[in-house]
């Protein structure tokens, strides 16, 4: 499953995003650009890291493959707080500025986790994530915290690979949330079908 372990790292090429200019620093890296909406995600190009194609069963739980892979840089709750504090336009500018200050290089770890989250009135959601090393995540959230006047938890960098009960996956806003959601580690062999 994790053939990319030890493979060349991924680096974001800064492009035009949501009306803000980005500079193209490195011509030969995959095109990754953030998508600002109710969250801030960094889509991972399929040519760089292909989404899984078949469902898996782990611990008796059937999980479907995610059709697209991304890294969530700002979750919904934090984005709502930023917009409530600064308004839409200032939030977009602040997020874009903070994003542009960092190199969004990441490395795969082949460290998989099964997560579980009760969904009020809708049962339980599960997902399998792969933790990634994303050095820019902590300073990016520090910068956002300075803007808000408080220390922010750093979301554990990861990519959701498989889901059950909730197609978009499970939000993981902090290391404490990850510990609360984690069922167990998943071996790569369990994901090969």
Short description:
This protein is α+β, with helices and mostly antiparallel strands and 193 residues long. It has a six-stranded antiparallel beta sheet with strand order 3-4-8-7-6-9. Strands 1-2-5 form a three-stranded antiparallel beta sheet.
The total count of strands amounts to 9
Helix content: 10-25%
Quickly count the helices.
Answer: 3
**Biggest sheet strand line-up:** 3-4-8-7-6-9
Question: How many separate domains make up the residues?
Answer: 1
SSE order: EEEEEHEEHEHE
Overall geometric form: globular
Question: Could you give a short account of the major beta sheet?
Answer: 6 strands, antiparallel
The overall pLDDT average reads 85
Distance between the termini: 10 Å
Gyration radius (Cα, Å) is 17 Å
Low-confidence stretches: 5-31
Helix/strand-derived category reads alpha+beta
Fraction of residues in β-strands: 25-35%
What is this structure's SSE topology?
Blueprint: E1 35-36, E2 40-44, E3 56-58, E4 61-65, E5 69-74, H1 76-100, E6 107-119, E7 123-133, H2 137-148, E8 158-164, H3 175-181, E9 182-186
Helix pairs in contact: 1-2
Notable traits:
193 residues, alpha+beta, six-stranded antiparallel beta sheet, three-stranded antiparallel beta sheet
Would you give an account of this structure?
With 193 residues, the chain is of the alpha+beta class. The chain has one domain (35-191). The chain contains 3 helices and 9 strands. It has helices at 76-100, 137-148, 175-181; strands spanning 35-36, 40-44, 56-58, 61-65, 69-74, 107-119, 123-133, 158-164, 182-186. The strands form 2 sheets. A 6-stranded antiparallel beta sheet has the order 3-4-8-7-6-9. The chain has a 3-stranded antiparallel beta sheet with strand order 1-2-5. A hairpin with a 2-residue loop joins strand 3 (56-58) and strand 4 (61-65). Helix 1 crosses helix 2 (137-148). The longest helix is centred in the middle third of the chain and has 25 residues, at 76-100. The chain is globular and about 45 Å long. Residues 5-31 have low confidence and may be disordered.
């Amino acid at each position: 499953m994790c053939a990319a372990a030890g493979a060349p790292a991924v680096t974001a090429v800064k492009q035009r995003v949501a009306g803000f200019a980005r500079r193209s620093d490195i011509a030969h890296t995959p095109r990754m650009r953030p998508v600002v909406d109710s969250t801030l995600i960094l889509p991972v190009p399929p040519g760089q890291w292909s989404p899984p194609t078949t469902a898996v069963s782990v611990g008796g739980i059937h999980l479907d493959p995610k059709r697209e892979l991304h890294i969530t840089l700002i979750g919904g709750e934090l984005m709502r707080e930023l917009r409530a504090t600064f308004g839409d336009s200032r939030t977009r500018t602040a997020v874009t500025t903070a994003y542009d200050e960092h190199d969004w290089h990441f490395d795969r770890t082949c460290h998989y986790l099964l997560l579980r989250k009760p969904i009020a009135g809708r049962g339980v959601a599960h997902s399998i994530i792969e933790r990634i090393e994303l050095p820019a995540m902590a300073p990016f959230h520090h910068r956002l915290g300075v803007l808000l006047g408080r220390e922010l938890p750093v979301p554990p960098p990861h990519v959701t690979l498989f889901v059950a009960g909730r197609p978009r996956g499970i939000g993981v806003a902090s290391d404490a949330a990850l510990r609360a959601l984690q069922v167990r580690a998943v071996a790569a062999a369990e994901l090969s079908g």
